[in-house]
Amino acid sequence: MTITSSILIVTIMITKKVLGKKLSVRWNYYVWLLIIIQLLIPMSIKSDLSIYNLLTYDNLDSSTYLNNNYSKPIEIDEINKNSLETDTKSYQQSKQENVLTLRKLIYIIWFIGFIIITIYYLIFNLKLIHKFKRCKCNDLQLEHLFRSCKSVIAPTQNVRLLVSDFINVPSLYGIIRPVIIMPKSILTNKDEKEVRLLLIHELMHLKLRHNVIKGIYLLLTTIYWFNPLIWLGLKKLDEDGELYCDNEVVNFINSDDNIVYGNLIIDLASYDKDFRLPIQAVSFINNKKYIKKRVLNIAYKKSKNHKTRIIGCLITFIMAFTLMTSAKTDTSLLADRIEQETGIILNTEAKNIINILAKDDSGYISTTHTDNDILIKYDYKTNSIKQHTNLFSIRLMDIDGIPKKCVIYIEQLDRLENTNSAKKHYMPLFTEILDSLFNNDEITNFITQKCSIKSSHNTKETIIDNYKINHIMDGKHKFYISWK
């Protein structure tokens, strides 16, 4: 997720660099919402339009399917002598243990960083809230001016006005109970028109919900703190938010006040910040290097253009459908890839099983083989730090290209990490494979019913049509099936 978000951030920045001046300041700000949406929604929609279709992608576990350390075919009379664990021993066990240790270390480092940043923000904000309790607005004339501006702007949230001596620039702070903080130094040095423009600016931020958008983005930066591009996106969101707010303020005030408003931005840029507001505050001045661009934006304000809106919408849709969607796996090519890279010649049954499993991207497919048979394993992703756990495996004993015997291994679902989720998600997949393999509802029902058995109970040989089925339990459900 963080990789695809980084690609989207870079694409947005390049697009803004090339076409940003031709597009509205509104588009330049709201395009950052694509990043928020992508980071908030962990799942992406598969699409043929996704740029990631250009990459070779499928859910084949290439680290295990090349394993050739596979035993000879199992005979039916050897069912008590062999187990799946013996059949699928891999030379990569030590490598997987090293990967597991590395993943644990990465998770620990992320968690420590997350805790440190969270505690820092909590302490900083608690101190700030404590200081706000001592702040009030005792100036009746200022309060009247504030109410007048608020009635005209009509912000979407109720907001209070506070006067403080520990900041030097007006700021909007808070999401649930927002407050506008006005510095005492500005109130003593500025006339009523300038104070009115400052109040309008902060109220416009509130009306545009910049405090909420920035708050959500900031929450995401605490989760993805390790990605510098996401922090850079926060900075750019701030800068574009000021440009957008300035643009809306200029649309609202009289044209005669534009010069006053521009001079006000330049003047406040010279104020030193004796007290640094938390990063989630929306300040009138947040980046002195951006002042020139803000003033030019006011001086050469663009008129609304329908052509510009259409281009902006088109670019947004292109980004959304190409960069926020995932690759659509071509399952029909997966079996062919296994044949090419392993030298295995798959029969029709094996290809059908692999293509069914490939439709589900929540697990891993692996294969092992000899000249006479093939084992297809399906491992599911767990919520823990474990790499993955085998859910079921199907071994086809091939005689002249036509399978005559098979062994099905399936984990007891009640032993899985999330039993309800496994039953809901994986059993339909397993049932589809059984239907494909035997095309016999009676066999499918027999096997799925036996999978619900929790106690250790072995079933006598069962004959269904031309199929002989032996079912035993030895940690896993094992079905040994032969047919004419």
Number of strands: 13
Strand content: 15-25%
What is the overall silhouette? elongated
**Elements, N to C (H/E):** HHHEHHHEEEHHHHHEHHEHHEEEEHHEEE
- Please count the helical segments: 17
Low-confidence stretches: 57-95
Distance between the termini: 49 Å
List key phrases describing it:
16% strand, seven-stranded antiparallel beta sheet, 484 residues, four-stranded mixed beta sheet, alpha+beta, 50% helix
Description:
- The protein is α+β, with helices and mostly antiparallel strands.
- Helices cover 50% and strands 16% of the residues.
- It is built from 17 helices and 13 strands.
- It has helices at residues 2-19, 25-30, 33-40, 84-87, 93-132, 140-153, 184-189, 192-207, 210-223, 228-252, 258-269, 291-299, 306-323, 334-342, 348-358, 419-438, 441-450; strands spanning 46-47, 160-164, 171-173, 179-183, 282-283, 326-327, 363-369, 373-380, 389-399, 402-411, 459-464, 467-473, 476-483.
- A seven-stranded antiparallel β-sheet has the order 7-8-9-10-13-12-11, covered by helices on one side. Strands 2-4-3-5 form a four-stranded mixed β-sheet. A two-stranded parallel ribbon has the order 1-6.
- Residues 57-95 have low confidence and may be disordered.
Task: Explain briefly what this protein structure is.
50% of the residues lie in helices and 16% in strands. It has 484 residues and is an alpha+beta fold. Strands 7-8-9-10-13-12-11 form a seven-stranded antiparallel β-sheet, covered by helices on one side.
